[in-house]
Automatic annotation (TrEMBL):
Residues 132-460 form the SAC domain. The chain crosses the membrane at residues 65-85, 533-552, 558-576. The lineage of its organism: Eukaryota, Viridiplantae, Streptophyta, Embryophyta, Tracheophyta. InterPro entries: SAC_dom. The keyword Transmembrane applies. This is SAC domain-containing protein. Keywords: Membrane, Transmembrane, Transmembrane helix. The keyword Disulfide bond does not apply. It comes from Urochloa decumbens. It holds the Pfam family Syja_N.
Amino acid sequence: MDVSSNSCPSPKLHTRLRLWEFADNYVFEPVDGLADLLLSVSRVNGSMNLVEELPQRGPSTNPKVQIVFGIIGVLKLAAGTYFLVITDRDCVGSYLGHAVFKVTGLRFLACNNSLGASAEQKNVDTEFSELLDAAERTIGLYFSYDSNLTVTSQRLHELGEEFKSLPLWRQAEPRFLWNGYLLEPLIENKMHQYLLPVIQGSFQSIHAEVRSEKVNVTLIARRCTRRIGTRMWRRGADPEGYAANFVESEQIMQSKGFTASYVQVRGSMPFLWEQIVDLTYKPSFDVVRVEEASRVLERHFHDLQKKYGAVVGVDLVNTHGGEGRLYERYAKSIEPILSEDIRFVHFDFHKICGHIHFERLSQLYDQIQDYLKKHKYFLLSDKDEKIELQTGTVRTNCVDCLDRTNVTQSMVGRKLLESQLQRIGVFGATDTVSNFQDFDANYKVLWANHGDAISTQYSGTPALKGDFVRYGKRTTQGILNDLWNALARYYLNNFADGTKQDAMDLLQGHYISSVSMDMTAPSKAGLLESCRLAFALIMVTVLFMIMSVRQARNDARHLVLSLMWAGLSMGISRYVKTNGRMFCNRPRFYQSRH
């Protein structure tokens, strides 16, 4: 489609800026040759305007200078304004012919030099400093100065050239625009050349040669911001139907001039439930407002239908215990809306595959194979002509939507890739990716890295069961890594993720800073003391249990003493279970997530 004659091309985004730190102003000087005007930001109140030149400098003026690669946005707090800038980046590949960068350095620039700030305002700002530090450590951010990373290649093709001529921030899919809230002050001030859209997720590419044909495969993860958060503090869905840990994964294949893509999604079971940390290894699952489950789930699936067409929900959780209760609620809630376009498949991953027999996922594929063939994938010819459209997606979940989910999604992605390569003649009718050793190895690493990135953002550690995705089999080292990562998740979930959750909510505008807000929170020293006490209780419990076993083994006469030790151990365990939440690092603003 030709761009209409009255439309104007959007201004190019600045790719490189020299940041001058004067006493009263920050000045961003473009050094990419795209504009002559400079952006000046007041360090007193964060106001911004375009200027023609740098401030006059006297002999004693010695401003700090550094290169930055974009402004992610502006955060307004009670005692000041903060500009979040990209201090470092790595080029990680290209999307639709344009470079894609990963953010590797972030910095907040404080604009709170007002001498009139009240003590109360300063206290609020101090309380938020810990959250800003956590926010600067945000990982998995990607951007492009020239291409829209927030929408799928099929959607971008459908929208046409006129849509592509809009500024990138106006093209962006709001669900996946990680810095949408932070961009608002820049939009209000019409700073068009500084409006850089950013996604959180993953961007990975591999290049292979198959029978003299070059094959490029790109895997993109786009994390939804609507219910963004950490593993234990964001479960289930909210009343609007937005699910926690909702990630869209798009696999793009390019070869022989053809471009093919397949989109699948993951997300927490879409009804109201939670799992609040309490120092136990696996806190109980609590379904909240059971009477609303069907309505919330229906809203979620109808929203998916609008965006992806048909949906098959693949549920991988256990059929017993706490997970079993979640499965039963899911199955019962989705039953009223099941149809030709909304299907539900339950596959008890642990029961069928155990810890090593992941090849049995073929049983799941047999159940959805007809669905995948019916709803196809997106395919463009070497002349950029549409050959096929993807008309449905697979929505996969386990409890965390990390480990079992990534193994399953990698299987679906592999099957679709093989079908695409057979369609364009790179593969023969019976060829599979595993027939080509180097291609197979690289493809496994591609999906393993994809899963690790999504897992680290949500849980703080790489994905479990990653050795199977990476090597095609379970390994001793992989099992040991899983043990270590499981322990690391326990620590992070109980003693670190509360602050991280608050930082995420702050950056998304889910909590608005106010000087009247009750910001009373435990000090770092108090939190550290709580952690020490919690760990001491746990270690004493373990010690008593070991002693009771040894006493019973060494001398039957000490059986009574052993029972006393065991009873004391059980008492301590009970105390931790009952009072564990008081020791955990809870989000400072935590309310019921629903």
